[in-house]
Structures are given as C-alpha cells and as structure tokens.
Automatic annotation (TrEMBL), chains A, B:
It holds the Pfam family Peripla_BP_3. PANTHER family: HTH-TYPE TRANSCRIPTIONAL REGULATOR GALS, LACI-RELATED TRANSCRIPTIONAL REPRESSOR. This is LacI family transcriptional regulator. InterPro entries: HTH_LacI, LacI/GalR-like_sensor, Lambda_DNA-bd_dom_sf, Peripla_BP_I. Keywords: DNA-binding, Transcription, Transcription regulation. It comes from Wocania arenilitoris.
Amino acid sequence: MKRTRVTIKDIAKELNVSASTVSRALQDHPALKQQTKDAVRELAEKLNYRPNTMALNFLKQTSTTIAIIVPDITGYFFSAAVTGIQDILVSSGYNIMICISNESYEEESRIVEKLSKVQIAGILVAPSSTTFNFDHIKKIQRNNIPLVIFDRDCEGVDAHKVLVDDYSGAFEAVEYLIKTGCKKIAHITGASDLSTNNHRLQGYLDALKKNNLPILDKYIIYAQGFTHEHGIKPTESLLKSNNVPDAIFAVNDRLAVSAMRTAKKLNFRIPEDISIIGFDDEPHSTYFTPALSTVWQPVYSMGMLSARILLGDIKRKEDENLQLRYEVFKTELVIRGTSKKL
Amino acid sequence: MKRTRVTIKDIAKELNVSASTVSRALQDHPALKQQTKDAVRELAEKLNYRPNTMALNFLKQTSTTIAIIVPDITGYFFSAAVTGIQDILVSSGYNIMICISNESYEEESRIVEKLSKVQIAGILVAPSSTTFNFDHIKKIQRNNIPLVIFDRDCEGVDAHKVLVDDYSGAFEAVEYLIKTGCKKIAHITGASDLSTNNHRLQGYLDALKKNNLPILDKYIIYAQGFTHEHGIKPTESLLKSNNVPDAIFAVNDRLAVSAMRTAKKLNFRIPEDISIIGFDDEPHSTYFTPALSTVWQPVYSMGMLSARILLGDIKRKEDENLQLRYEVFKTELVIRGTSKKL
DNA sequence: AATCTCTATGCAAACGTTTGCACAAAAAGA
DNA sequence: TCTTTTTGTGCAAACGTTTGCATAGAGATT
C-alpha cells in the first residue's frame, strides 16, 4: 500500500541520463536526440510516469483552480450556471472549486477569507442575497485575483460583470399581463438588497407607470425567501384582501408555483380569475397545470460567458491593462397556461 | 500589478533571523523565545503574510482537493448530495472539485483519466447511467486513491459504498398502491444497467409477486432518460393501450410528474382513475395538483456520510488496514394526492 | 577555571520539475 | 592538424516551507 509515485529522477537513473534530459525528452525539446527521446518516453510509459502537479504548481507558482461562490446549488438556476462554467473551465484545463454561501453574508465572507489563503487562479461570484457590504469582494481584487461577478450585481464594485436584463424581463412580463387585460397586478418580490430583485421590481413599476396603472403598495409583497414555502403567505394575503389582484408577477418560478397552488386552493381559476407569471423558466415549470408562464433566462450561456471572461483575465499579460467587461443577457418571455392569450 | 506575495524569507530578512525561526515562530514551536515569536507574528501580520499552499502541498506531498464525479447537478438529487458532501469536506479543510459526467461513460472515463494525472486526496463517485464497465473505477483504487461510491452501485467493485435502499423503497410504494386497491400497476423505469433503477424494478416485481398480482411485460416501460420529456411517451403508450393500468410507479419524480401531466391531458382523474407514485421527493413535487406521492431519500445525509467515510479513509494510517464500509439508507414513503388514501 | 547542561537559533536537505548556462564530443571548415 | 561550429547533455539554481541535526552562548555544577 505504499504511495511511491514514479518521478523523473527514477527514469533518469534507470536510463543513466540526467533529470533535465528526461524533462526535456518529455517536452519534446528540439535539442535532444530522437533516440534519447524515444527511450525516455518508452520507459515513462512503461513505468506509468505522471508528472507531479503539486511540484509543477509550486515551480510555476500558478494554480489551475478556480473558485465559484454561489448562494446555493440545489436550485435549477445556479446549478445550471455552474454547469455552464464547468464546461468551459474544464475544457481549458482548470479545476473548479465550489463554495456555497447558503445565501449568508457571513458564510460568504468566511469563504473569501479562506480563499485568500489558498492560491487560486480566479474567482467567479454570485453574491448572497444578504450581502450588501462588498468589502470582501473588493479584497479579492486588491489581492489581484481575477474576478467575475455574475447574475447578481455588486453595485459600486468595479469588476467584470455578466448579468441578465432583469429589468426588461420584468417589464415585458408585466406589460404582457396588461395587454391581456389585467389591471390589478401584484408583485411578489424578495430581499430588496438583491440587484436582481430590485431590477425586476423596477421593471414592474415602470410597466405599470407606462400604462397608466396605479401603483399600490399593498400589491408589492416581500417574500422571506426564494423557495416554495415562502410564496404561500404573500399569496394568501393578496387573495384574501379586499382588493384582490387579477394577476401576480412573481420574482421567480418557485414563488410563482407556490402562488399558483395557493390560488387554486382558494378556488381561483388560473388564468381566468388570476394570471400568474414567474421568472427563471425552471424545467419543471412546464409540467404544472396550467403550465407556468415565465421569463426565460440564458443561465447556461451566462455561466459559459462568465467563465470565458475570467479565463481571458487570467491569461492576460502583466502589462496589458485591464479592460472590464460588462455583459447583459436578454431574457425571453415564455407564455404558457397561467396567463391569458393575447 | 505585481504579484509579489510575502514569503517567510522576507520576514526572516527583515528580522535578521533565519527562515526556520520564522517558520517555527508561526507554528508556536516550544523551543523558541516568546519574544522572538511575538516579533515574527507581529511582522507577519503587518505584512499580511499568507503561507504558500502550493509550497506546502508540494513539501508534504499531499493534496487537499477531493473530486466528486456526478452525472449531473442541475437536478435536485445530486445537487443536494453534493451540498451534503461539501458541507462536511469544507469544514474539514478540503476543497472540492466538481466533475460532471453528463451521464456519459466516455466523459466519466475521461474525467478519471484526468484526475489520475492530478494529485487528488480522494474521489467520490456516482457513476453515470451508461457506465457498465468499471475498469476506470478500479484504476482509481489501483492508484491507491481513497474512493467512495455513492447512490449508484458499481457491482463487483470493492470500495466504500453509501447507497439507498431502493429495493424496499420501491417495494413499499408498490405495496401501498396495492393496498389502496390498485391491481394493474405499471412501472416506468430507466436504463437497466443502473443499480438504482434495477433495485427499484426488483422491488416493484417482488411487491407484485408477494401480493399475487400478475407481472405484465407491457407494464414495464423503459424511459430513454431521466428528465420530464422522457416520461411522456411511456405514459401515453400505457394509457392508450387496450389494457390501461390503474397505477403508475415511476422511477423518479420527474417521470412521475410527466406521467401525471400526460394522464391529465388524456382526461384521467388522479388518483381516481390512475394513481401515481414517484421517487426522490424533489422540493417542487408537493406543489403539483394533486401533490405527488413519492419516496423520500435522505440525499443530504447520504452526501454527508459519503464524505465522512472518505475522510476516514484518507486519514487512516499506512499500516491500518482498509475496512470497507457499506452503508444503506432507508427511504420513506410520502403519501400525498396522487395516490388514494388507505 | 573547567566541564556540563540547557536554551535558542541556524544550517542544510528535501519535496519534483524546469531552464539558463556551461561544456564535452563530434562534425565541419580552414 | 588546428580552430570553429554544431549537437546533445549535464549542472545547478530556483520555487517556499519544514525539520533533524548541529552549535553558539549562557547558566549551572563541579
């Protein structure tokens, strides 16, 4: 059970050459005799030689590990984004290290603290919903570690950013509801510090304004979280009020799904009595009855682009100066059964 | 923009001591004068000294990276398992490296091949559904890399295994259907090479046998994949046949959900005309109408235990001999609206 | 004063690989 | 035959840290 890996020296000794020669042979160095190369390669193959990555990383003082900090991966959104990131980075020879902040600012800070002690080639971060102080993010930059912020913006931080046009996604959704005759449109949103929530809320507000519909505070409900169970109370409070809305635009699919079930339980017909539109287009959203209308986001592409931008930054030369990228993806409105047809 | 990290030598030079002294001071070596320690620590703090992980890994010839190979993370199941693994490993100071096989044997082999070139402290693997040759897994063992197989079994491979009792989970579900009066129970399953599918199928078959119900080949349908869209055709073929079943037990929730929608479209009442039970208990399964009856698995715990077992193996001494762990988690039947009440 | 015992620190090797420079041997040119 | 060029290979340093061993200097014991 001994862990004796074959090293370059072993090969060198066996072949009566120096370690340098072996190293060069394996790299196909032009100054070497073909014969020597062949001999070395053959023996390396035979002994199942594998270069010691740790020695290499050490020598080159470079790490091939890239960290991804996400709030959660059990939901569709971030797991798809991570998959996109993964596909790009892995094919470029990098390893990804996943760090889950669990939507907690403290955990996120701890992660960043830990990462700063380890050598990391770059970091991709989607900040937690409870993060509104970005000092730790800025610290990453001060340590000169390439950084890309994706999906959720850190306002005031100058970094590469890959975002989604939440504003226009929400605007389109709400305007669609208006066009189909809805006049009393409620919005279930989430933590107000989160850029995505905020932009969707703005889109909602502006769509109402543009169409001369009144903005009612009681139609804007803050959910306490992002998962299904957080959608129940807000919906109940809306549907049991004395001014029942005729549409609900939810900040994500989970809340929309939850709203849908709650509405059904209260004997509302969907979409006749109440229209519902979500955000994200999670794969199972189509399978509800009626199928959920929602706003699709190119998550996977967002992950891929974020990874590509990070790679670009990592590979840029010391002297090249940093050109910050700011990319915003367009969403697409997907009309299914929970909203009326035009 | 230079990347000059402070090293132990820098501190040594500034303090006119040797590097060894600095190293020892930082480790609180007893032979050192308190005064020296304080001076070193203070300067280290001031210069923001961070030990070079790559140098340490190299010196100690140990890696703190653990690889997880999973078929996919966009679904609830594996992302929750990964979260469990992550929570344990991160708190023990390890980094996790996620590798996604995309349910492809080739990709999985490629991943293993790549990992064997990198130094890795251990590997957790849930094999892909198209993997039925386990040579690459055995190769991991031959390289003496600690290995834990989880969720999906690799039969014939002697390794730590953390599995779920799919057989009894399925058995219970089917027996429940029988008890509620179902007599014509169909099963939508998946790739037959996958241990989980196979055990669920066995549970299904044995439950029928035990209750003296006939086993009909046409009631056992193989879906081409695990996602929603793969459930449509199997369900249609069942419900449009001349011997329509009164219950469907699906190998996972996604297929069950899809079966449910298809049944609804064909105007079957659930559960009056047809009962449906899934497997996994994904979070959104409750939110369908009717809410999906299903078999819950302790995914998160499974992830955690797998990680703990792997850690135990990694930390075991060279001379201690390997005690293989074989752990099987119990499932729980969750009865909701898609099956009749007892 | 000579020897012994601590105490605190330094020296140097080791981990595996790459690479600039040196240099021997062979080949080419004079 | 002597010099110059080319070809192929080796030497040694470097990357940052730890650690066994050596040792200088101080204090204690004779």
